Structure formats: C-alpha cells, structure tokens
Amino acid sequence: MTNITHSTMPLSRSAKALPKNPLRALYPLAARDGMISLANGHPSPDACDHTGLQDALKTAAADPMTWRYGPTAGDPRLRSALADISGDQQDSVVVTSGAQQGIDLTIRTLCNAGDTVLVPEALYPATLSVMAACNVSAYAVPEDVGGICINGLDKAIWDSNARVLYLTPTFGNPTGSVLSEDRRAALLALCARMGVLIIEDDPYRDLWFEAPPPPSLWEMSKSNDARVIALRSCSKSIAPGLRIGWMLTPQEITPHLVAMKQASDLQSSGTAQMVALAYLSSGRFSGWLATVRALYQARHDALQKGLVAAGFDAPAVTGGMFFWARLPEHIDPACLFEATVAQGALYAPGEAFAACSQVNDITRYARFCFASNSLEKISQATDRLADAVHLSTT
Amino acid sequence: MTNITHSTMPLSRSAKALPKNPLRALYPLAARDGMISLANGHPSPDACDHTGLQDALKTAAADPMTWRYGPTAGDPRLRSALADISGDQQDSVVVTSGAQQGIDLTIRTLCNAGDTVLVPEALYPATLSVMAACNVSAYAVPEDVGGICINGLDKAIWDSNARVLYLTPTFGNPTGSVLSEDRRAALLALCARMGVLIIEDDPYRDLWFEAPPPPSLWEMSKSNDARVIALRSCSKSIAPGLRIGWMLTPQEITPHLVAMKQASDLQSSGTAQMVALAYLSSGRFSGWLATVRALYQARHDALQKGLVAAGFDAPAVTGGMFFWARLPEHIDPACLFEATVAQGALYAPGEAFAACSQVNDITRYARFCFASNSLEKISQATDRLADAVHLSTT
Questions:
Q1: Cβ atoms of residues A296 and A373 within 8 Å
Q2: Staple partner for A228: which of A221, B52, B317, B389, CB 3.0–4.6 Å?
Q3: Residues of A with Cβ-Cβ distance to B192 under 8 angstroms
Q4: By its UniProt entry, which Gene3D superfamilies does this protein fall under (chains A, B) (predicted)?
C-alpha cells in the first residue's frame, strides 16, 4: 500500500490523451504589449450590441427563470425563439452551453471508445480534443477549395468503418470554404446510403457578406434519408461570453442527447438563457447582424489586400471570420512565424488545425482572422507581416 | 449498405446505459394543479436575494467579460472571490458550470471505462448518471446515521479495486447526515494509505442552523497525505439558475481538469460568472446567508413536527435541505406514495437514491425537502401526508 503520489494519481486514459489546444498555446504571445493578433477566432468587441444586451440584462432581471432550475433541454421560450431563426419546431432544439458542448454531447452520445469519426483534413482543434477525451480517432477526408471532396468519400467510409462525419460546411474553420449546394446534396445522399450520421458544426452561418450561404445540411436533410445533427451558436452573432448554443436534432436522438446533457451540467445557465431570449425578443437581432456583416466584410477586404501585398495567396471568402492563406513560397514557415511575432503580429499556423500528422502541405498555410481587429490595426498588422516576410526571405 | 434507421442509428454504450433520472421523472407529478412537492432539491425562491442579484446584473452589464471569451478555469477575479470563501488560493479554484459539471469532469478525468467508484449506499442519482455515461460502476459503502462507515471500508477498497471515493459528507443528499470530524480524519488517513482519491461533493456546507459543520475533507487534507477534489456550488446559496460552481483541486490534477473542461464547454458562462462576482463583491452574501439559514431552520422544524405527527421517523438534521425519513411501519411503500400523490403531496421515494439494487431496506425511506415551501404549504403537505398514511393503513 502506498500514498497517492503524482505518479500514482488516478488519471484516465482520456485525460492523458488530451492534447494541448495549440490555439490556446498562442494566448501568451497574443497578450504581449503591442501585439496585434490575427490568430484567434474571437468576435470583435465592436460586433457586440452592448446597448441591446444591456437592455436584455434588464429584461432578464425580472424573469424568475434567470435564477431558478429549468428544463435540461432549455427554457421552452428560448427553444422556440432559436427554432424560429431556422424555421424549425421547438422540439428540434436543445440548448447547449456553447456549440463546444454540442460537439462533446454528440460525440459522447454517438461514439464508443475506439470508434473513428471522419473529419476534414483541417479542422477546429477543440473538436479533436473532444474526440481524444472520448478515445475516438479522427480519419481525415481530403479537402479542396470547395470543402471536403465527395470523390473517394465512400472509400474513406469503408476503410475507416466510421458511422459519424464531422464538418463545418459553411465558412469553415480554418479554411473559410463553403460546400456548394450540389456537393451538399451528394454528401447527404452518400451518407444516407452508407449509414453515416453527419455532425454539422455551423456557428458562422449568419456571417455572410453579399448573399446567404446554401441551405444547411440540417435543412436539406429534411427531404432526404440522411441524419444530421446541427450545432449552432450565439457566440459569433450575439456574444461568446453568454455560452449559449443549440443543437438541431432528429427526434429519435433528442432524448439521448438530453440525458447526456443532464449528466454533463443539468442545464445551461438560466441567466444566460434569459439574456439570449430577451435579446432575440427585442427585435434588434436582424438589424444588428446586418451591421456586423458590413463591418466584417470591410475588414475582410482590408486584410485580403494586405495579405496579398505581403506575398500570401489569400483567396477571398464569402463570409465567416477566417482566411486560409498560403504562405509565400520559398520561405520557411517556422522562420516566418518567429519573424512575425518579433514584428508584433500573430497568426495561427496551419499545423494547429491538422486532423493528423499526415496532412500534406498544411504547414504552408495559416489561418488569419479578419473579424477581431479594426481597419487601422489590420493595416498595421499586414505592414508588420510584410516586414516579416521580407526579413525571412533575405 | 442500408439507410440509417432508428435501429441502426449510431448510439454509444454510454448513451444506452444512461438511466432515467428518477427525480426528474417526478416533475410531471409535481406540476399537477395544487400539488405540494417536498420531492425536489430546489432552493426556495424566498431564499434568493432578488434585490442583490438585480444589482449584480447591473454591475455585470458594465463588465466586458460578461460578453467575451475568457479563461477556461474561470475569470481570475471570480476564482479569487470563490477562493476567499474557504480561505484558499485562487490557483486551487476551477469554475464549473454548476457542481454537476464538477462531478462529470472529475469522473472523466480520473476514471477509465470499466473502473469502479466507491459511493454511499444512498446518493444523488445524477452522480450515477455521470458514472453510467463514463461506463464506470458504483460500489456501495455501508452508511449509518453518521454517514459512511469507516469499519469495513478498507475491505471495500480491496474488493472493489476502486481508486476513487465519491461522497457528500456534509448535510448529505439524500440523508442529511454529517460525517463527524473524527470520522473525517479516519477516512482521510485510510484513503491516503490505500491510494484512494476522494471527490467531496459539498454544495450544502453553508446551510447550517446552529453551528458550522466540521471542516471540509478538502481543508483537512491540507495537513494529510490524502488527495481530495472538493465540489462547491452557488446553486444552494445564491441561485441555481446561474449554474456556477467551483472545484477545489490539488495542483497536480488542475491542468487535467481544466483541459477536460475546455473540451467540454470551453468555459462557463461569462455572463453568469460576472453576476456571481458582482454579488460576492457586493458585501451582501454573508448577511443573506444568515437570512436563509433562519428561514430553512424554521421550515426544518415545521416539517419535522409534521412528519413525526404523520407517523414517520424523521430525525432532526443540523443543516442542508433534506430529511431522510423512515416510513411508518406496516405500510406498503408503493401504496403510501400513491395515496400521498392522490392527496396532493409529493416526496422522493428512497429507491430513487439507491447506489445499486441490493441496498437493504431503502424502499422504507423517503427524502423530504424542507427548503422549497413556505410554513403554510409545509403544514398543508404534512396534513395531506397524515391523511395518506391513515388511508394506506386502514
């Protein structure tokens, strides 16, 4: 018999397997004096309707459900308001503590330890954290500029034996790509035929510039045999600090997801739910979204111009928050990153998003967020970036 | 190749194993017109400092962290305020989305599928849900009126091969029992010697009547080799709708718990955190707690009197929210429950709290919450209960 020591401390395989989040590892750099960070995925403080939200807090103060226990699936009034956004029924909506909890709940509810989930080659790293926490493996599906490739997907499904596919088909993180309506239809048909459930992570859908994106996989699945669980969020369109997201789920899975949520946190914060409800009920949401879209589009244009001028291949995107830019050729990625930090700017290196260590060429890419900084800061950051490219080339 | 149907839907073993929460199953009964429920574990709306909380909302409205992303472990100011409550350091505190998330995170971080965790014979059923979600088994440790028995615990540890013990040593749910300081010391020494980590679920600690309870296992472990993770909550002392709890954790486990939390929900609601911070900083908390203690003590006394008059064996407790009362002898538990519901009152049957199906005699007990109802309602409820006992006897 021994005392518990560091080495004998009980620690699950899941806990041991959890990777360090490579984006959170950049936070100390981002916090340096004078640093301009294009690395994070944070909405701009300017994109937060403070006046409307402060009014929402006042309204929430008078609602008893701000303080009391409520239903696990969410307050029925909020579920109804969230359902209205996508023309769904309240029963399809389960409120979550941010879309991150939606990822966790769906993986826990659908997958056993040892299972494999299909994912894009480049993806949001916290999804890989959830999979590690559930002892689930990632199987990378090739992507092109239009999102995941349907050709060869049937073989990937056979080879991986996966029953679940995770993707962000609209303004993808990190790539910014949008799956076309045709490709969506082909994906749904294939997944329906091969018995694969799709987790559609969809937090950026509202942030389009000129025209709305194609219908969601969730919406298209209604006229299709495919099964889709969609994850939505108030984080990019209202405020990330609320930690209110929602799942749209087929009714045969809903009770299982709700039971898993109950084990996980009983219910999402009633305080946050009532603030979100008051804001959505205030009539300000659609007008404010238009403001945010225009703000982000102007920043997108400015950042693209600056990146191209600095030597990056940075194709325009049609919404969301991110560029997936190819580094100037004949430049060492590690040197460029170091030089950029030294100049006082920061981006997220491509390898932070790799589904696995075999993803080809990913170190030659980087994610740049156009949402978080003012036009002036964006201009300063791209000047610094151009200097860093220059210094790394010579 | 087949379409996904209900029967082929991917569903994890965890999701299949999740039990229905027997307390939530009582909600439809509790919602009946005129029903007085003593079954739930909800703080009284009268025990919520609405004036103070509305002021806290106003203060939170001006704080940028109400709306933005923040650190996974919680806002440093809130961690510091929560640490102050127990005389700890900020580094020991990890903010959780209610203590329920603390249970989930600790089990996920400490236990593998197939592991066994020691639990009291009668416990909070949502802990069993977490264990089912993690494919972890419960091994019941005998209890007496003073909480879990130390005699025989070494054998239980050997027999179960468990590395983790979960308990609520202070105003236990459902039993209301308090582990004495001597028994705490013996428990800590034994667990230290045998390499068992203790999860101390401690949400009721502040709700004492005449005198504070013994020091927490967490506090006592500082002068001991035992390892304790304590789970605390704002739900019983401020407001459950906030969904703000916290863990006190040994520093060698903290990064693992934080990584698991990051995968689970990134961070707890900033909105709720800033309201909790503003309330704790307002200076109202300790005065309000005194009000709540007096309120609950009066209700405790009234409910005890009524239960005894109705024929129950309902020993006084010294704080918390619950009686664990033995049903009148020579009465069928199922008949009594049905008769009580028919009379318009509700309690939580003992078997809802059984760690396993082998727990002796548990159907002869029931949990009664004295916190939720006014003195007038308590009097009506015990009158109805007395009628139900009378009807079930004759």
A1: no
A2: A221
A3: 3-4
A4: Aspartate Aminotransferase, domain 1, Type I PLP-dependent aspartate aminotransferase-like (Major domain)
Among chain A residues, the shortest Cα distance to B108 is held by A12
Nearest by Cα to B232 from B90, B89, B96, B78: B96
Residue B311, sorted as left (phi over 0), alpha (psi -120 to 50) or beta, turns out to be left
* A98 vs B contacts (CB less than 8 Å): 265-266
Contacts of B241 in chain A (CB under 8 A): 65-70, 269-271, 274
pLDDT of B294-316, one tens digit each?
999 999 999 999 999 999 999 99
CA A120/CA A83 separation, integer angstroms:
28
The answer to whether domain B62-281 has CATH 3.40.640.10 is yes
What does the pLDDT profile of chain A (394 residues) look like in tens digits? 344 554 578 999 999 999 888 888 898 999 999 999 999 889 988 899 999 999 999 999 999 999 999 999 999 999 999 999 999 999 999 999 999 999 999 999 999 999 999 999 999 999 999 999 999 999 999 999 999 999 989 999 999 999 999 999 999 999 999 999 999 999 999 999 999 999 999 999 999 999 999 999 999 999 888 999 999 999 999 999 999 999 999 999 999 999 999 999 999 999 999 999 999 999 999 999 999 999 999 999 999 999 999 999 999 999 999 999 999 998 999 999 999 999 999 999 999 999 988 777 999 999 999 999 999 999 999 999 999 999 998 6
Which pairs with CB-CB distance under 8 Å and at least 24 residues apart come from A316-319?
Answer: A317/A171, A317/A176, A317/A177, A317/A178, A318/A171, A318/A178, A318/A208, A318/A209, A318/A210, A318/A211, A318/A213, A319/A170, A319/A171, A319/A178, A319/A204, A319/A207, A319/A208, A319/A209, A319/A213, A319/A293
B26: its two tokens: 């009582």
Instruction: Kindly report the nearest CA distance between residue B368 and chain A, in angstroms.
Output: 18
B17 part of contact set with chain A, CB < 8 Å: no
**Alpha-carbon gap, residue B112 to A12, rounded angstroms:** 5
Picking from B18, B163, B263, the nearest residue to A260 by CB comes out as B18
Q: Do B4 and A226 touch (CB under 8 A)?
A: yes
Query: Both tokens of residue B16?
Result: 């299949």
In the block, residue with structure tokens 């004096």: A33
Min distance A269 CA to chain B CA atoms (Å): 5
Instruction: Please report which helix (H) or strand (E) contains residue A144, including its range.
Output: strand A143-144
Q: So what's the ipTM on this one? A: 0.96
Q: Is the distance from CB of A115 to CB of A136 less than 8 angstroms?
A: yes
- Distance (Å) from the C-alpha of residue A39 to the closest C-alpha of chain B? 14
**Statement: A50-281 belongs to CATH 3.40.640.10:** yes
For chain B, domain boundaries: 13-48+286-393, 62-281
